[in-house]
């Protein structure tokens, strides 16, 4: 009897404690810590449901480069070594966990900065909503550097506009450095954002507009420089030579091939130009992917990245000189197409026919779980998933346009700058991936979830969602 009475008294006390904890604002360090800890397993939900981290075709190459120390020009040396030092030999779950932890930290940090009145319960609810309605968990739980694109954007925003003192600043800088370095497109994206921020600062300086959010440059520039140094150092560890990239010309060439610019140049100049490709003019593939990865492609016969680098560079320069208008038109068309392509699940399909051998070399004790996963069993249907994800993405883009207009009309400059930063990142990512490589859904899908996230933070800072009068400290 006394035990039942004690339990009945304990239940209201526990409920009251949970209610008070849920209402803590994120600026409270306890709520911040709990939010990060709660988001990590949430964002791994898709991988846990799958039974194994999501695998992409490139995963095997990254494992070969990082764990086997075999340099591959087309793969990021930093992410490859991240797999090795992050514990991929023991379990790919360690890699997915590290990616999830980094994402959770910058997401909560952004929420603390943009929506300081948001409480713990709302933040966890927002995380759950993003997991269910966007592609976020498909990238966080994937053994691929794509999740770091969004991490780079959020970390850069924090360093520019909300650089917290102490350990948060240094941890944000470290995460930003890694995110910048794990893929060349991230390096270019952050470089573009840094240029845009420099222009923003110059405009504020010359117009003396003091009411706009101030922007810092030291930390973002440091993240870029340190990321670049990390790339060079990783290349040196794998090759003994200092360089940034040996794959750039091949990817740009492939995009120009797909846009039919290469064929036009060969038609206009062969055989006088003496390009090696003149001999292959009638059998060139139609798409960039067929050129780069197709069996029997002239790219393979000519020595892939190292063997084609000089001629690819020569053809790129010649085509720009001969057809500048066509180059600009094609680049804009590819960037626009990339901006509108963001389906979830691009090439997330059974891949054991390609990857079983390299994965069995480096993670043999994980092969049973890998082969038993829903992905490898072919049980994932992205049609209903994309019905939801695409609907949310398009509605969010419309909401972003409306919110931007309203923010500047109402002089809510902090909100306007935050939303404009997200839009600029989306545009920059589309331009880099579409024009310098070639459009793929996963390139934009990895960032599009930032739009509903940003809009939710703006709404989440409304007093209604604080669940506590603004005057209370929450501590």
Please give a structural write-up.
The radius of gyration is 24 Å and the shape is globular. The protein has one domain. Helices cover 71% and strands 0% of the residues. With 475 residues, the protein is mainly α. Helix 4 packs parallel to helix 19, helix 17 crosses helix 18 and helix 23 (413-436) runs antiparallel to helix 24.
Fold blueprint:
Blueprint: H1 2-22, H2 29-43, H3 45-50, H4 59-68, H5 77-85, H6 92-114, H7 120-133, H8 136-140, H9 147-161, H10 167-181, H11 184-207, H12 218-239, H13 248-258, H14 261-269, H15 288-293, H16 298-301, H17 304-322, H18 324-339, H19 352-362, H20 367-372, H21 374-377, H22 382-409, H23 413-436, H24 441-448, H25 450-460
Helix pairs in contact: 2-6, 2-7, 4-5, 4-19, 6-9, 7-25, 9-10, 9-11, 10-12, 11-12, 11-23, 13-17, 17-18, 18-23, 22-23, 23-24, 23-25
